[in-house]
Amino acid sequence: MRIFFLGTNGWFSTKEGGTPCAAIRLSGRRRLRGSPCAHDGRLIVLDAGGGFSRLPSLMARLRISRADVFLSHLHLDHAGGLHTLPLMPRGMRIRIFVHKSYLPAFRRLVAHPYTASLREQAAKVTLHPLCTGENLLPYRVLALPLDHADPCFGFRFSLEGREIAYCTDTGPCKNFARLAAGADLLITECTLPPGSRPFPSWPHLSPEMAAREAAAAGAKRLVLTHFDAKQACGAALRRRAQAAARKIFPRTIAARDGMEMGIPANQAE
User: What phi, psi does 66 have (nearest 5°)?
Assistant: First the structure.
């Protein structure tokens, strides 16, 4: 199993990176205990910011025709990349998952006069609601609300014996801890620069805050993403963020656009 980081900036795209999008490649067909379905060579896509425009070429390179896209919320740096859905060629099958509370807003966003509707795409694109709590797809997804200015949902995926948590645009909260508990990989945001204090009115994480949450939750590995573009979030800032987090949680990596990494199997598997 591998994960590809297609966009790692927060707020807006710069020469250093696009806005959030990552894709998990499942390694093969495998039936999960208690699930009637098996994986079938698809990508699990985390958010659809500016990095989403790189997804069609990744799918072509990997020879994968299916992708499940999970939207944490509808801020444009996490959903605006859906404007590039027409890049998906005929034969691709894209399922978009969004919390049921966001369905009316999503339908307004992905439609005229803003962009082409789902029905007009060359690829087959379908919309699917998520419930708060456990959702059983061909894999299990736990969706819980996080602490953000607008409703935002974090996810925990049970995939081929791995537990992967994705928590972005949030401050520390109980649901963050629940999603991250014992995860093989925790992917979370790093909007605030090293040494920052939390802003209760603008919930986000610094590298130190993210590392403390990972350590407290017993996560095995931590990846930082969603770096604030207005902080000139190039390689130097990412190195500083990674170093600051590693003082607390050594198994930390600061993501960059184009990075890919393997996700080891759970040793208890």
Answer: -125, 140
| Nearest-angstrom CA–CA distance, 95 and 124 | 8
> In this predicted model, what pLDDT tens digit does every residue of 202-259 receive, in sequence order?
799 999 999 999 999 999 999 999 999 998 789 999 999 999 999 999 999 999 999 9
Phi first, then psi, for residue 11 (nearest 5°) are 75, -65
> Are 43 and 76 in contact, with CB atoms under 8 Å apart?
no
Q: Which of 164, 162, 170 has its CA nearest to residue 142?
A: 164
**pTM of the predicted structure, to 2 decimals:** 0.94
Q: Which residue is listed with tokens 């994705």?
A: 166
CATH topology of domain 2-27+40-258: Metallo-beta-lactamase; Chain A (3.60.15)
Would you state the structure tokens that stand for residue 124, as one six-digit string?
């087959």
Strands (E) across the chain are located at 2-7, 9-10, 21-25, 42-46, 66-70, 93-99, 124-130, 133-136, 140-145, 153-159, 162-167, 185-190, 222-228, 252-254, 260-262
Closest C-alpha to 70, from 9, 146, 154: 154
Q: Is 189 within 8 Å of 169 (Cβ atoms)?
A: yes
Q: Where are the domains of the chain?
A: 2-27+40-258
Helix (DSSP H) and strand (DSSP E) numbers for the chain: 6, 15
Closest of 204, 150, 208 to residue 176, by C-alpha:
204
Cα 77 to Cα 68: distance, rounded to the nearest angstrom: 18
Q: What is the SS3 assignment for 261?
A: strand
User: Reduced to 3 states, what is the DSSP secondary structure of residue 183?
Assistant: coil
Residue 143: exposed, middle, or buried by beta-carbon count in 10 A (0-12, 13-18, 19+)?
buried
β 252-254/222-228 pair status: parallel
**Closest by CA position to 99, among listed 73, 81, 80:** 73
